[in-house]
Amino acid sequence: MANSLEHIRKARNNEVFATIFWPARIRYADWAITVYFYAAVHLIEAYFATIGIHSNNHWQRNQEVAKRFPRRISSHYLRLYRESRRARYEVTPVTKVYAQSLLVNHFQPLRAYLLSLLP
To answer: What span, in angstroms and rounded, lies between the C-alpha atoms of 23 and 77?
Structure first.
């Protein structure tokens, strides 16, 4: 089980990796959404590690997020979860504008909130 710092490092690696897809290569906006979602997963798990919780799967994590965070925060995470699934499994193209709105309106506020909770 990873500790908080290991999860933070993984989240940062994901964010750096996402820049390969975004914004320079607009064709891969769907992958940018997916990678930013996994950065959010690791930030959530970093916080959970500080309170002695570890999620074994998305369902369990989604339940803990809904229970432990204010709705305005949990809604950001759950939106990223849904949109990353859509980006991975549906064939509908993801536009640059839509991906940018997810990044700015959901990932960045979630990231800022979670980092404010971490030591």
So the answer is: 21
pTM: 0.94
Range of the domain at 23: 4-117
In terms of Cβ atoms closer than 10 Å to its own Cβ (0-12, 13-18, 19+), residue 21 is buried
pLDDT at 42: 98
Neighbours of 68 (CB within 10 A): 14
What residue type is 2 in one-letter code?
A
- Helices (H) and strands (E) in the chain — how many of each? 6, 0
Give me the chain's average pLDDT, please: 93
Q: How many distinct structural domains can be found in the chain?
A: 1
- Rounded CA-CA distance 112/90 in Å is 29
